[in-house]
């Protein structure tokens, strides 16, 4: 992390927005925006942002799965596929 390039006051961002966006997209490093000496926001490139959203979504699914296991909300593989076959049979019957 290059502190001089990666932490900028809001006034600098306002005056140099195009330059900052270019920096963020080229380096893939976030820029921390300060206001009155306090960190207020983080600018990231869109690809990094999308990757973070996907990672957070995956972690949420993992957490829910772990919670389901602890609470005993699980099916055996055999029961799962039997239920799936029944659902698909019902779906085919309704469509016909």
What this model shows, in words?
- The chain has 96 residues and is α+β, with helices and mostly antiparallel strands.
- It folds into 2 domains: 3-44, YefM-like fold; 48-95, no CATH class.
- Helices cover 68% and strands 15% of the residues.
- It is built from 5 helices and 3 strands, in the order αβααββαα.
- The chain has helices spanning 3-6, 10-15, 17-27, 46-70, 77-95, and strands at 7-9, 31-35, 38-43.
- The protein has a 3-stranded mixed sheet with strand order 1-2-3.
- The chain is elongated and about 65 Å long.
- The N and C termini lie far apart (61 Å).
- 1% of the residues are buried.
- The model has no long low-confidence stretch (mean pLDDT 93).
SSE arrangement:
Blueprint: H1 3-6, E1 7-9, H2 10-15, H3 17-27, E2 31-35, E3 38-43, H4 46-70, H5 77-95
Parallel strand pairs: 1-2
Antiparallel strand pairs: 2-3
Function: Antitoxin component of a type II toxin-antitoxin (TA) system.
Organism: Desulfosporosinus fructosivorans
Protein name: Antitoxin
General form:
elongated
Distance between the termini: 61 Å
Strand order of the largest sheet: 1-2-3
Mean residue pLDDT: 93
Q: Count helical runs.
A: 5
Q: What is the number of E strands? A: 3
Low confidence ranges: none
Strand content: 5-15%
SSE pattern, N- to C-terminal: HEHHEEHH
- Number of structurally distinct domains: 2
The major sheet is characterized as: 3 strands, mixed
Helix content: 55-70%
Alpha-beta content class: alpha+beta
